[in-house]
Amino acid sequence: DGLVIxxxxxxxxxxxxxxxxxxxxEDKGAEEEHPRESDSNILDVSSDYPxxxxxxxxxxxxxxxxxxxxxxxxxxxxxxxxxxxxKACYSHKLHRHLQNLHWKVSVEFEGYRMCICHLPxxxxxxxxxxxxxxxxxxxxxxxxxxxxTIARRTDMIGHxxxxxxxxxxxxxxxxxxxxxxxxxxVESATDVQVLPNHSTPQxxxxxxxxxxKLNRQLIFCALAVLAGERKPIxxxxxxxxxxxxxxxxxxxxxxxxxxxxxxxxxxxxxxxKENCHLxxxxxxxxxxxxxxxxxxxxxxxxxxxxxxxxMDANVVMHLRSFDFIHLDPFGTSVNYLDSAxxxxxxxxxxxxxxxxxxSLYAKAQHVALRHYGCNIVRTEYYKELAARTVIxxxxxxxxxxxxxxxxxxxxxLEHFVLVVVRVLRGPTPADDSAKKVRYLIHCQWCEERVxxxxxxxxxENPYQQLPCDCHGSMxxxxxxxxxxxxxxxxxxxxxxxxxxxxxxxxxxxxxxxxLKTLICEAECTTLKHFSxxxxxxxxxxxxxxxxxxxxxxxxxSYIVPGKRKSEEVxxxxxxxxxxxxxxxxxxxxxxxxxxxxxxxxxPKLNKFLNYLSEAGYRISRTHFDPMGVRTNAPLAQFKTIxxxxxTPTYVGAQAEGPVHLPGEIQVGEEVPAAAAVxxxxxxxxxxxxxxxxxxxxxESYPTHCAAE
Length: 708
Hints:
Keywords: Isopeptide bond, Metal-binding, Methyltransferase, Nucleus, Phosphoprotein, RNA-binding, S-adenosyl-L-methionine, Transferase, tRNA processing, tRNA-binding, Ubl conjugation, Zinc, Zinc-finger. Its main location: nucleus. Belongs to the class I-like SAM-binding methyltransferase superfamily. Trm1 family. By secondary structure, the protein is an alpha+beta fold. Among the domains are: about 55-125 and about 135-165, no CATH class; about 590-650, 2-Layer Sandwich (Phenylalanyl-tRNA Synthetase, Chain B, domain 1), CATH 3.30.56.70. Helices cover about 35% and strands about 20% of the residues. It contains 21 helices and 31 strands. Strands 14-15-13-12-16-17-19-18 form an eight-stranded mixed beta sheet, sandwiched between helices. Helix 6 packs across helix 16, helix 9 runs parallel beside helix 10 and helix 16 runs antiparallel to helix 17 (about 510-525).
């Protein structure tokens, strides 16, 4: 073993620095090649010259298997484990060992995998137990940059990140560097090069998330719709990272947009410039930066020019005005709302992507209160609650700048919350928007909810606003006050239809199903009644090579030259749209599984939607929850219809088929919850007298089914 260690040290040319205190405590017979373990579990190694990489650092699992020289007819030992730890075995067992115990727990960096090593490269202090001395082999990782050995995987990841932050990303061994094409990503015909640590989000490094592709497609569709209204428009990607979003805007919309990509990180700015050249785009540097020979000749601007700036997002939004601003910071976006709404132009668009889902989805309620000033709890409609929380924060920020907002789109999915709003300048729109920020009364027993009425007068019994009767039948306080939240509509149907046309035009397949669901949700209708032609929009007009359906008097069909006249036409068109679509979609939704009846099989969701529609209620599916139903039916009627068409799980004395309601209750009527409870109790008493068995649902206990 000592021979192996000495050869390893000679081949790596390791110069180990050991404190004097440790040298004094070292046994006299120990060799200098055996370094002692420091308190930080990291050896201080100096290797500024090229060296051979350790055998635990490989690109592919097949390269690791080649070291073992796998053959079916021979037993082979593990190349990263000593013989006493893992005995020699056949190929299939050794393959599982290498894959599960070495490859899966490796640390990735620039295409290489630093696998865990059990060889005696890193000696551990011996443990003296009685008269025996147990020498323990320590598992460790070999750093690809500085050849240090580190015991824990989390410490190794932090060690590599410190190298990256210092700019030390060159492996110090003699080998062929990984080609840059291994980190090139193509999305929507846009080719970008990402940094080596693109898969691990950090505040100081560029981050590329493939799961946000749907988010980028939705934002592109919104920008394409705005580019059809007026052009050219100045748009800003405030947090560029790799610059893929701004490159998609400039590459597809061409002369309709003037793109500015900003980032405060120098490595990200360098990556953005390289990606611009990779996509054959010219780079126009900010006037505050030094001229490095990358500016456009003679200062001219064309459709293939992208402006790249390196400054704080708040600074660039305070310095200039934009028509379209997209904010996608690391976490919450509330720190940038004031500067975004300060300089955005009238009838411009601001899109916000919030990835702090732990606070928005009520997993960290104290963080939501600190960032958004909003009190929320975990409910069945928590995703819509998160979207309304972000819109309320944007509304207050816009109102401070004497601007109002019109919500065009609100999406809350697994990884992000996206909100797209149009800015309306003036104190009157600001006041109208601020009035739509209200508190929500939420019943914790049955999850009924209602927005608090307008007014400043204090009510003696706020429970009277709730349609349910849980406060009267349950002890203590049964409701909580959530908010302040946005109480207006979450979608603009006309804008969503135009976004769908843009998605079809540019072949954005992932965004099309979601946009269809959003249109149905905005109109509160099912997908089978969905039509791409909205009523009254029969004319077809081509703008920027894109066909957009507009009405005869639509503002988009005759944009007059001049800023004021075009804004007046657009404002009048927006008023007409609000008058035509005065019936907003119902707020919030109900989860069918949450309100299902114990001991009963509920009907299929599509059939249940038909039953609600036949009863005279507006219904639609929702993208927030695959089992959610958005309807204007009160919760009491929702449960009544659900119980009527549910079948018993165990068919005993009951006959098969749906449970029939008493004749006094008509499904089409909107029966208050308290009245429904009284009628059901009266019928239950009559059935008990006549000996007829029935399964009735008590409204006071929303998940309990009493069988008589």
